[in-house]
Amino acid sequence: MSDPAQIVTRFAPSPTGYLHIGGARTALFNWLFARGRGGKFLLRIEDTDRARSTPEATAAILKGLEWLGLDWDGEPISQFARKDRHAEVAREMLARGAAYRCFSTPEEIAEWREAHPRQPFQSPWRDASDLPDAPYAIRLRAPREGETVIADAVQGEVRVANDQLDDMVLLRSDGTPTYMLAVVVDDHDMGVTHVIRGDDHLTNTARQIQIYDAMGWPRPVFAHIPLIHGEDGKKLSKRHGAVGLHEFAALGYPPAAMRNYLARLGWSHGDDELFDDAQARDWFDLPGIGRAPARLDFKKLEHVSGHHIGSMDDAALLATLEHYLAETGARPLTESQKQRLLPALPALKEKARTLPQLLEQARFALIDRPVDVDEKAAKALDSVSLGMLKSLTAAMQHASWARDELEQAAKRIAEENGVGLGKIAGPLRAALAGRTATPSVFDMMTALGREESLARLQDQTELAG
Fold this sequence. Notes:
It catalyses: tRNA(Glu) + L-glutamate + ATP = L-glutamyl-tRNA(Glu) + AMP + diphosphate. By secondary structure, the protein is mostly helical.
């Protein structure tokens, strides 16, 4: 058991597929709540569904959490590995009279439900004393009268009439525990103080509370957060685009941006939209979570992403780009590419909203000599333009290579040829980047440096003869 004064949260995904964006947000909320209070954030893999749980899905979940930057305390716990402990608690409840043996067969239960539609199943074995020697399930002896009250930190007070709940099965006749029992036992044994999860679990909570009460265990604080909907207000699905965390990673949103955006998806701190991890940990609390479903908004996500790319340290941004390339199976950057890219980042990162956009703008720094000029850019390299480039190359041989001085040198050459600066910018773009759409030619030259820039200009004038 943990220190009762310490906050303990958990994330408990089922390893039956990829990490959904909703699950990622749930994990983030739990992580922020615990980390902001010096508490523990635990990870439990709810792998009791043996037919659907796979090691590959577990690995994908762990990888997704690591990409998002969420660390957890201790080793991930397997729910299936604790099945003996779950069965032990069911038998303890049986011994103390909080549960009973039910010998009803599936056919008998089906017949009862057909005869009593709209009523929870009432086992004839609840108060029986003459018990047969036959396989049995262990059922909770749930209260039949009154209400089970959930004091939810997000949804408020939720009341469920006990006559609407059946005596749920805790241990099946084959000796396997049910999910409802396993969750409660695991949360209790792990010392979980706050259960923060999607509000689709709210209907389970009344049943789980009855297990806590039957065992005399303290209830954790429950906080059921609203689900995420698409921009059309409907439950999020594949038709809305990306729904798996891995898809957002592949689209090139940096982890820091995803943490910021997901934190604001259903939670608010005043009007603050853009913040870093330290602020999020300090500010996050349960009363700030709204009750209405949050809507996924890709325009807002791009805005948040652009902010984080623009404010990221250049070395950290380069590392983020390298990780993105590795994750998407792209060719890694060479040392010479990194040396050209790093000084280009300050001028490029202010306009990029995703990592692919940044890489596209940085293409001039990633290509090697001789620059391959596309058909459209080649039109700017006529004989007059090449003559200006030759003059510019000579004029820049001894320039200080400050941006302003480079621009002044280009203006002088343009004036000498009786044209505006734009007339020399076109051939410069073609020679430096091989394209017509590029960042500022002077930003490119500053980033590439004297030797590389002049070499690219010289390549084109020499190719022309």
